[in-house]
Amino acid sequence: MAQQSSLTKRSRKSILIIPFPAISPVIPHLKLAKKLAQHHSVTFALSETALTENKFKEIFALEPGIDITFFSIKDGHIHGKHDTFNDFNHILGMSNQGAIDTIDSTASIDAVITDTFLAGSVVRSSVKGIPHYIFDTACADILPLFFQLTDETPVIPDQDDPNGFCR
User: Fold this and answer.
1) Model pTM?
2) Which of 1, 40, 47, 160 could form an SS bridge with 77, CB 3.0 to 4.6 Å?
C-alpha cells in the first residue's frame, strides 16, 4: 500500500482551471475542479469580483478532504456593472487577458482548463508548452457560433501544429 501512495503523490499534477466569470460556467468548472482535486493540485482562478460576489460564495464551499486553491484574477471585471449583453465583448476581452496573465504568472502548471469563451488563452499555453483543454459547458450545436470561424481566421502553421489540432 505504501508504494501505491508514493506513486500517487508523484503523479499528482498541478492543474489551473479558469472559467468564464458567470455563474453558469462557474458551477460545472467548480464541480470538475472538486473531482480533479481528489487526485491533483487544483487552482481555480476567477475574476476578483466574482470570488467575493455573494451569489458565488455558497458554491465555493468545499467538502472535507477537497483542497482547491482559489486565485483572484485582477481583470477589471466589475460584476453588476459589466453584465449586460452589450458588454459581452468587453467582458470577453478582459477575461481572456486575465486568463493569459494568470497562465503567465502561475509557476509550474501541468495543464490548463478553460471555458470555451476563454479559448483566446490557448496560444499562451501552447507557447509555454502547457497542455490546454477547453471544457465546454454549453450544448455542442452552438460551438460554431462561439468560434465564428471564417476563411480569414488565423491558424497556426502546420510546422507548429503537427497534429493539426489548431486548424
Assistant:
1) 0.73
2) 47
